Amino acid sequence: QVRLVESGGGLVQSGGSLRLSCAVSGFHLDDYAMGWFRQAPGKEREGVSCISTSDGSIVYADSVKGRFTVSKDYAKNTLNLQMNSLKPEDTAVYYCARNSYCSLWSADFTSFGQGTQVTVSS
């Protein structure tokens, strides 16, 4: 059974950091492209980052470039998202998902986790 479970969200002040994790089961991280998405209240889900499986290439949304870093921990079968220099506009529910190819379009992805809330206070 495919499962993705996000964790690590919380409340942080502007400029602070958080590290999100996505523990996966039922498949291996190396077999799929993995993406991070977020959805703020009243807004559509948007892509944050994606890491491919073929060559390990990574893409980031312009809004998070230079502040967020995505990585895979193969030993723990976990996808991570290190978020630094957080801003109030980063406030959202963050989700991980898998796909056969990398994309920042959530419609391309299936098997989303339940999400973890990130709140950045000003």
Compute the number of helices. 0
Shape summary: globular
N-to-C series of helices and strands: EEEEEEEEEE
Task: Report the span from N to C terminus.
Answer: 40 Å
Q: Tell me the total number of β-strands.
A: 10
Strand order of the largest sheet: 2-10-9-4-5-6
Low-confidence stretches: none
Described by strand count, sense and barrel closure, the largest sheet is: 6 strands, mixed
- From the helix content, strand content and strand pairing, which structural class follows? mainly beta
Share of residues in strands: over 45%
Provide the helix percentage.
under 10%
- Compute the CA-based radius of gyration: 13 Å
Question: Would you mind describing this structure in some detail?
Answer:
The structure is a single chain. With 122 residues, this protein is mostly beta strands. It has no helices and ten strands. It has strands spanning 3-7, 10-13, 18-25, 33-39, 46-51, 58-60, 68-73, 78-83, 92-99, 116-121. The strands form two sheets. The protein has a six-stranded mixed sheet with strand order 2-10-9-4-5-6, with no helix packed on it. A four-stranded antiparallel sheet has the order 1-3-8-7, with no helix packed on it. The mean pLDDT is 94.
